[in-house]
Design a protein that fits this description.
Strand order of the largest sheet: 1-2-3-4-5
Structural class: alpha+beta
Mean pLDDT: 81
Oligomer: single chain
Number of helices: 3
Shape: rod-shaped
Low-confidence stretches: none
Radius of gyration: 31 Å
Strand content: 15-25%
């Protein structure tokens, strides 16, 4: 079973990523690392005969593996195409939940972005500024018109 798992992992790695590393982990499972996409996938035999636990996670700065963020159980004899589809779903789930690398820090949780309503004073100040600019423009146009009409003799 473990030999079949390793062969399946190598085929799966070739389908998922052109650049990858495949190795056995301590528990006897197989890990596929895609350093260029900062993701990993592990396949390990479950207690049920013929099923494999597929887990996926991120690779952190420095090359350490973060804990799995998504997992599923599939039959090992499902075929490379179905296993690859399941892995892609897991990787998509991880991508949707991942934050940009610049804002990642241990224990950091980004607060949800909310549109902050403008305070009432700010709205009043905005209207005062708009009224002042509009009235100054009207006064400037009247002065220009009166200068033009005086100069032309009208």
């Amino acid at each position: 079973m473990l030999a079949h798992l390793a062969d399946t992992a190598r085929q799966l790695a070739a389908v998922l990523w052109q650049q990858h590393t495949v190795y056995r982990d301590r528990t006897g499972g197989v890990v596929i690392r895609g350093e260029h996409v900062e993701r990993w996938i592990s396949l390990s035999v479950t207690g049920t005969r013929g099923e494999v636990l597929i887990r996926a996670g991120r690779i952190l700065d420095g090359g350490t593996s973060a804990p799995a963020r998504a997992e599923t159980v599939m039959r090992l004899d499902s075929g490379t195409g179905e296993l690859a589809a399941a892995c892609r779903r897991l990787l998509a789930d991880i991508a949707m939940s991942a934050e940009p690398a610049a804002s990642r820090a241990p224990g950091y949780a980004r607060p949800a972005r909310q549109a902050r309503p403008r305070p009432r004073k700010a709205r009043v100040a905005l209207w005062v500024v708009l009224a002042t600019v509009t009235s100054a423009s009207v006064v400037a146009l009247l002065v220009a018109y009166s200068s033009y009409s005086a100069a032309s003799g009208r």
